[in-house]
Amino acid sequence: MLEIKAKTFQEFSTQELYDVLQLRSEVFVVEQDCVYQDMDGKDQKALHIIGYKNNKVVAYTRVFKPGDYFEYASIGRVVVDQNERQHKYGYDIMNASIEAIKENFNVTIIKVSAQTYLKRFYNNLEFFEVGEGYLEDGIPHIGMIRKYTK
Q1: What pLDDT, in 10s, does the model give residues 136-148?
Q2: Which secondary structure element, helix H or strand E, spans residue 93, and what is its range?
Q3: Which residues neighbour 9 within 8 Å (Cβ) at sequence distance 6 or greater?
Q4: Spatial CA neighbour of 97 closest among 79, 118, 75
Q5: pLDDT of residue 41
């Protein structure tokens, strides 16, 4: 069972911040073999959605209000520990992120910059492709939007 918490940057303990950055590095830098600057100066503006299993960070996203990253509210750095993906925690952390945006930002449109191979995952969460595909840090991506009524 995943326990999910939302925190601002200022609410992180040093250990929690370390655990989140370690998970992001394990997946985005090591597993995906992508050299890029993960610490991009945007974490301070984000609301962080953290999934814990037995007090270990195993899933994570960061969400932004409109204008802080994209024109729309957005979800980024979507990550699940490689050893925990069979539990479908990606859906749990994304649904919690969508709810956090609804509760905190009072908007009806959410954008993600999705790795192209995950299109079906995002389609299952009611995100749909917009525009052309593009490379981000050498990895194919597509913009995707989710619209809902309040």
Answers
A1: 988 999 999 999 8
A2: helix 89-105
A3: 43, 44, 45, 46, 48
A4: 75
A5: 94
CB 28 within 8 A of CB 37: no
Examine the pLDDT at 150 and tell me if it is beyond 70: no
- The one-letter amino acid code at 111 reads K
Domain locations in the chain as residue ranges: 3-107
pTM above 0.70, yes or no: yes
**Which amino acid, one-letter code, is at 56?**
K
Q: For residues 56 and 11, give the distance between their C-alpha atoms in angstroms, rounded to a whole number.
A: 17
Architecture of domain 3-107: 3-Layer(aba) Sandwich (3.40)
- Total residue length of the chain: 150
Instruction: Pick the closest to residue 58 from 107, 28, 33, 93 (CA basis).
Output: 93
pLDDT in tens, 5-38: 999 999 999 999 999 999 999 999 999 988 888 8
